[in-house]
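Reopening this ticket.

The earlier resolution said the output was attached, but the attachment link was broken on my side. Pasting everything inline this time so it's all in one place.
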Amino acid sequence: MSQLPLYSDPSLSHVGNQIDRCNSPVSHCADKAVMRTESAGKASHATVAGKLNKGFFSILDARSRTEFSRLSNRVNLRSGETIFLQETEHSSTFIIESGLIRTYYVSKEGREVTLGYWSEGDVVGGPCMFGGTQHVWSAAANRRSVVYAISGPNLKKLSSSDARVMSWLFSALEFKLRWLSVLFQIHGTEHVRERLAKLLLMMGDLYGEESGGDILIKYRISQSDLASLLGASRQWTNKALAKLRDDGVIVMDERRILLRDPKVLRNILKKS
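Inline output:
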């Protein structure tokens, strides 16, 4: 993974790729939640993880977009590029315009644990979004991505003047707390098969797209990252994936996963 020097406000000039000062209004981004019509037999599994119902850019009006553009910096990231590292000074919070960002924690023994994946309209850099502390985990681009970097004081200024921004930040923090709570539950589940069923439902809910009546998890996630999210070895994770694939519950192709029968995954959880 490429690790570039951390950038700090106001210049961000020493990041190795293009940074655009936001002199034009911020474009609308797609909502974080995937909207889809629920069919009989495919009831929502939002209760597994919950959703961040609106992406950040969708809640801004024209005035707020202009103000956000003035206060932030637009950053283009290469795949694998580090955004920030744990135990370094919090200089900025990052709103994702496009792409996919992975957050992770590295233990003192060097073990790396994936905490989550975040896409368009979401935020990384918390939990202390207004700065004044150190990052408690790290973040890197999982693919080519575009983010807006806004300093803690500027984000506090914007949220103080716009109640919708403040409300959205509360919702974003609540969503991330639910995500981490589910991760703790997953790690506390006895069987890897049950952990995997819950994780796949959660990812289908967050990143799923309808595909011929099935649900395609649109992002490519490696089996090692799946194992990290599950708190299991790659060997056990691969065995659990192979069993679901052989049973026709999922289809895997180039690290993308198609959920053929989410009902079976929910039944696995009911039996646990």
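Reporter confirms the inline version is readable. Residues 1-53 have pLDDT under 50 and may be disordered. The two ends are 37 Å apart (CA to CA).
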